[in-house]
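quick one: zinc ion bound model?
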Amino acid sequence: MKHHKLLGLLLAATITAGNMLHMSVSAAVTGDINGDGSADSTDLSLLQGYVLGNSELTQTQAKTADINGDGKTDIYDVVKLRKTILASDRSIKYTAVTDKITTGYTDAFKKLSVNDGGSAVTSTTELKTALSPYLSEALVNNYLTKYNDTFFSQSVLLVKPVFLTSSNYQKKKIYTTAECGCSSSYAGTYTTKNVTSYLNIRVEHSAASESIGRIPPNAIIPVSYGNGQWAHVTYDGISGYANMDYMQKISEPAPSYEFIPDLKVDSIKYSAGKLNITASEFKSTATDFAPAILIQTTISKKDYYANGTTWSVTITQPPELKYDYPLAKARLDAVGWDLQAAFKSAAATTYYGQKPDMPQTTDYSLEWYADYGFTNGKGNCYVMAAMFCEMGRLLGYDVHLISGKVPLKDGSMGAHSWTEVKIGDTTYVCDPDFAHETGNNGYMITYGQSGTWRYVKELVMD
Ligand SMILES: [Zn+2]
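yep, here:
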């Protein structure tokens, strides 16, 4: 599988917001009035309270509180301490949650650039303003309930909507050809068209063949293969062929994904008047793709000073994923990490024809075929080639799964799958099924080589 193209998700949204301060770690302890090892907003509160005459300091504390060392503890020390805290680099304490939003987002959310759309909000009014362009009124109201006046009396909320485009995560659509020549490009969900009584399910791709079932008008009909005239249908437990003149497609097969992405906040740091939030994308264990994600980060209000700093969110992509084929790895562990051993192992798979024995799927991926072979120890040409392809890749070879046709004994062309291995400028064919069926060498042969099949390549499946 060619590695999916991940989103160009690097983003740096710079949003005007208030200053945040919290000094959780500090080497310098100037201004550490309460003696907890750091000078932070708690010390500033203590100092302000003292200067305003609202609270007392001990003698030691009062001495520490003379920040500028002029022998007095007054408003100038408050100003100095504030500057000291603002100038330092520090981590901010935070809590972050993300919500996946599957419905109720607006077109503005879909169009939202990853470089835009974050806010620091300090009130329900600001929250409503921040979310309303992106979320339905009902969803906004949910957030207004969650983050109410009581919340904002203690905290500041950073909200960052992120839209993940599902097509960037979808597995490449792979069309395969059944042995009858029908293509999975016709796969999907159909219904009847111009059918008043019923549509026949026939045993062959022919109106003259026996009818073995009837599809009523407006039925929902799953289709796995078709040729434009006849479709492979299953209805009411009966599988056969139906005339596509009387069918129309109502939906494509459900997409499958390379992985389901989610986001998490990794850190919040304050540096030189700027609040930097880093977040990263990770593989979720969820099964459904949720394109809209709202990151919500809470920091305490006492660490927040509203005098105009900026903050940014940087979302990093996960590291490039290496091929993750656990079953192929286990097979290599068993037969030895060697390309020819991998080939022999794939070619030794018990032959098991596609129809009617092989299960049907709409997820015709390299992984599907390979998993089937490794798990069941049997399969057809696609299965053997996919097994070899995965093992070859784990061995570091540039291997691709090919779908096409080869001549059959009766002179017609039959669907077939093999692999190509690219070494330097040379493309070799490795065809485990050819070796399996003929007993001849199918390892590192070339197209057109005598004694091999006449390969008609149709597509690279990965
Ligand atoms: Zn067919």
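The first helix runs from residue 41 to 51.
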